[in-house]
Design a protein that fits this description.
- Belongs to the BetVI family.
- One of its GO terms (cellular component) is nucleus.
- The chain is of the alpha+beta class and about 160 residues long.
- The chain has one domain: START domain (Alpha-D-Glucose-1,6-Bisphosphate, Chain A, domain 4, 2-Layer Sandwich), CATH 3.30.530.20.
- Helix content is about 25%, strand content about 45%.
- The chain is built from 3 helices and 7 strands.
- The chain starts with a strand and ends in a 6-residue tail after the last helix.
- The relative contact order is 0.24.
Length: about 160
């Protein structure tokens, strides 16, 4: 099963890609502490093969996730990650892969659209309701809007 989501932003693709994706393990706990309490790069240098762990606040449906970076294109502002551990992995889902593309809108003042495509393999006999994906979309929107707010308030950050 798969789902997609788009988030529009007035921030340039290069900056939102850096802040909202590449450096999210550092920026996220600062700008979204009510959701993401801590995060760390566990292995690698941030490139393909790197693994980072995101630790969530108690209100979330799961405690943590470990993400593995499977694909990275700095020039096209694109990345694909898979869930290595945590979240719904092993409980509802057998595998999860998410592709992020930050596409410039061509607007004079910058701006981009974040296009997200998630693919998941559900465990046999498990029903995953639409509310799971609604929550995932809302969480991703909160993430990129928090990064956007930070970048708009700090115009020299992540340039």
């Amino acid at each position: 099963m798969s789902w997609s989501h788009e988030i529009e932003s007035p921030v340039a693709a290069s900056r939102l890609f850096k802040a909202g994706y590449l450096d999210w393990h550092n920026l996220g706990p600062k700008v979204l502490p009510e959701i993401l309490v801590s995060a760390a790069l566990l292995s690698g240098d941030g490139g393909v093969g790197s693994i980072r762990q995101l630790n969530f606040a108690p209100a979330n449906p799961y405690v943590y996730v470990k993400e593995k970076l499977d694909f990275l294109d700095h020039e096209k502002y694109e990345a694909t990650q898979s869930l290595a551990e945590g979240g719904y992995l092993g409980k509802k889902l057998e595998a999860v892969s998410i592709n992020f593309k930050f596409q410039p809108t061509g607007a004079a003042d910058g701006g981009c659209v974040v296009r997200i495509v998630a693919t998941a393999k559900v465990l046999p006999g498990v029903e995953v309701g639409e509310e799971t994906f609604v929550k995932a979309r809302a969480g991703l929107t909160a993430r990129f809007k928090a990064a956007e707010t930070y970048l708009l308030a700090n115009p020299t950050a992540y340039v």
